[in-house]
Amino acid sequence: MKQTTWITYTHEQMQELKDITERYKSCLDAGKTERECVELSIRMAEKAGYRDLKAVMAAGEKLKAGDKIYAVNMDKMLALFRIGEEPLSAGMNILGAHIDSPRIDVKQNPLYENEGFAYLDTHYYGGIKKYQWVAQPLSLHGVIVKKDGTVQKVAIGEDESDPVFVITDLLVHLAQEQLEKKASKVIDGEKLDLLIGNCPLDGAVEDKEQKEAVKANILKLLKNKYDMDEEDFSSAELEIVPAGRARDCGMDRSMILSYGQDDRVCAFTSLFAMLDVTEAKKTGCCLLVDKEEIGSVGATGMHSRFFENTVAELVAMTEGESELKVRRALMNSRMLSSDVSAAYDPMFAEAFEKRSSAFFAKGITFNKFTGSRGKSGSNDANAEYIAALRKAMDDAGVAYQFAELGRVDLGGGGTIAYIMANYGMEVIDSGVAVLNMHAPYEVSSKADVYEAVKGYRAFLRM
Ligand code: MN
Ligand code: MN
Questions:
Q1: Domain assignment of residue 325, yes or no
Q2: pLDDT digits (tens, 9 = 90+) for 7-51
């Protein structure tokens, strides 16, 4: 068993750890949805000299070593590239992570009134324990797109002066029957509706004709603030997430408690490393994808051809248009498919097998296999590739550990690794271990966040 990394750090390393984790926390606060993460990442990338692929293509430019490019897909998926000295067809070093997180989505026809309360109807997104999301402050993030194409951004509940929202739970005094239910049934999916108002429209009390006056009042507020009508909900993407900021956790401030660390702990650390490394031989790539939590589907998930198409454009702009060279670029690449790992939790020791568990403060986690029940659905990283990674990590003084997700036959999870492995490239699951994954607030170790950035830098330099 490797030692905790905390006792190995010099004063300088502790300072760097602090800088990185503070920056990470501010990114978590600014990026609570996939769209917000893309917007923030583009802002950071442009500051570091990255340019939009579309603009570079429009200008008819060729690309050369050292050029920095980003490509964005529907504002929910982002790929950054730093062109290396070797040709693209010799392969890239790819850091991949996902920027969608479990949450509760607002439906397309959501607004209704019931007994003087106004609600938004919802459908949860990703794997959640529904009972964890009730009776706590929630915020609303997203976009409303009107028929004329105007995009209205929404973020309510993060500023101290903002109102927040809540999904109610039954009082314990009357919960005798509820408490007998299975945990998966305690809160029904259709009852996860968001309480958003209780005050009727001004003058509605006198006007007996006015039905649903609380809903009418909400519509008036929405009209004033966003110039939207009820029908505009149908072309909106509104996501309900825990309100509030990422916080230090523990008397010793050794951990971070925050919403959305699956998988933004890997996404932002990958991005930090990508922006830091400016001297690699191979083309570096940082790929931030959407929809992982629901199977990597759709135009902005890893299954989409967006990445492949973008690589084809880059090959055309460096080595000349060639379908074969695109295939070579993909097949000759290496990837760290980064996603959170389940950290060993002594409170739930029975769910883990200690020798194959990821521990806090023991560095970046590698999973040769993911999948479940006989490794079903796994990506399997090649032993030769793992050996090369061990050398790169050791040479760069990065702490790392090997783990599997929980006990055999207990469950498991998928990532984006197997999708990229379809190209024949070397891919391994890696990432940061967290406690209570998919809960409204997840816990990470600052030491592991730091080791992840170090590890990703070392990988890009491989
Ligand atoms: Mn994940
Ligand atoms: Mn997840």
A1: yes
A2: 999 999 999 999 999 999 999 999 999 999 999 999 999 999 999
CA dist list (Å): 235 to 143, 148, 212, 231: 9, 11, 23, 8
Q: What is the Å distance from ligand 2's center to 438 Cα? A: 6
Q: Which residue has the higher pLDDT, 371 or 421?
A: 421
Task: Tally the C-alpha atoms within 13 A of residue 159's C-alpha that lie toward its C-beta.
Answer: 5
Q: 98: CA distance to ligand 1 center in Å?
A: 7
- Report the separation in Å between the CA atom of 101 and the middle of ligand 2, taken as the mean of its atom positions: 7
Looking at the structure, tell me whether residues 108 and 96 fall in a common domain.
no
206 band by pLDDT with thresholds 50, 70 and 90: low
Confidence band of 5 (pLDDT split at 50, 70, 90): very high
Å from CA of 254 to ligand 2 middle: 23
Sequence letter at residue 323: E
DSSP string, 188-245: -GGG-PEEEE--PPTTTTT-TT--SHHHHHHHHHHHHHH---GGGGGGEEEEEEE-S-
> Considering its fold, how many domains does the chain have in total?
2
Are residues 408 and 454 both part of a single domain? yes
Q: What is the pLDDT of residue 1?
A: 60
Tell me: do 449 and 308 sit in the same domain: yes
Query: Do 46 and 115 share a structural domain?
Result: no
pTM: 0.96
Range of the domain at 429: 5-101+259-460
Q: Is residue 247 part of a domain?
A: no
Do 153 and 183 sit in the same domain of this protein?
A: yes
Asked if pLDDT for residue 273 goes beyond 80, the answer is: yes
Percent of the chain topping pLDDT 90: 91
Residue 337 C-alpha to ligand 1 middle, in angstroms?
Answer: 10
What residues flank ion ligand 2 with Cβ within 5 A? 262
- Report if residue 149 sits inside a domain: yes
CA of 324 to the centre of ligand 1 (A): 32
CATH number at residue 266: 3.40.630.10
- Verify that 42 and 145 share a domain, yes or no: no
Residue 125 tokens read as 């997104």
Mean pLDDT of the chain: 95
Spacing, Cα 105 to ligand 1 middle (Å) = 18
Place of tokens 């379809």: 422
Structure tokens at 41: 């990442």
- 249 assigned to some structural domain: no
Final residue before a domain boundary, out of 242, 271, 298? 242
Instruction: Label residue 142 by pLDDT band (50, 70, 90).
Output: very high
Q: How far apart are the C-alpha atoms of 432 and 452, rounded to whole Å? A: 7
* Nearest ligand for residue 266 CA: 1
